[in-house]
Design goal:
100 residues; alpha+beta; 7 strands; globular
Length: 100
Amino acid sequence: MQFIAKQPYVKVVRQVSALEQKDIEEQRYMYLYEDKIVTRYREFPIENVMDISFRLTGKKTKGMLYLHTLKGVYAYIIKSSPEQFIDAFKARTHSTTHRD
């Protein structure tokens, strides 16, 4: 199955050893398909996703992407604009919920 849109996000993984603690950023991707949104470890059926929003921090492209689902809100750190991903989601959900 081909994805409709892809959004990079960052997961900060903390590694602790006896001598030090390191925070490592892992580059991951969120994929929008016709019937679901998929991250590395989660899968959200499209009918369970109510909305997607984002808030930028002081920098113009860094911020948080929020998936508003029936089971809660999931937050993802982003370093690039999610507008194309959100537009694709809204076009997809609008076309499936408002058919004539």
